[in-house]
Amino acid sequence: MRSSKKRKLAGGRKLQTKGTVTDHYASFIKDTLAEMDTFPEMKGRDLIMDHAPIHTGKIIGKMIKECGYKCIYLPLYSPELNLIEQLWSVIKNASNQVAQSSFEGFARYSTRCFDGYLAGYPI
C-alpha cells in the first residue's frame, strides 16, 4: 500500500521509496482521530483534505468513516488558488524564522498567525 515516488538505487535494480507513504499517513490519521476523540466537541467533525495520493487511499477514507468522521476533499485545482495552502505557506515561513522549544510554543505562535490572518492581514 505504498503511495510514493520511487527511485533506483545506485548500482542496483532495487527501488527505494522516497517521500511519505500511505502507511505513514494512515498512522498519522489514526493518532489524530484518537486525539480528536478525547474532545467531545470534536466527535463527528469533518476532515478537509486535498487530493494528494496519500490522502485519497481507500484505507484512509475507510478509517476516517469507521471512527465516526467524514472526509471532505477540496476541489482539484492549483494550490495558488487554494486559500488554505496560501495560509499554510505564510505560517510555515513565519514559524521557520522563530525557534520553538515546545509544541505548546508552536501552537501559541500558530494561533497568533491565524488570528492575524482572520484580522485581515494580506497573504
TrEMBL record:
| GO MF, any single term | nucleic acid binding
Q: Residues in domain Tc1-like transposase DDE? A: 24-97
One Pfam family from the record: DDE_3
Matching entries from InterPro entries are given as: RNaseH_sf, Tc1-like_DDE_dom
> Under what name is this protein listed?
Tc1-like transposase DDE domain-containing protein
State the organism of origin.
Answer: Rhizopus delemar
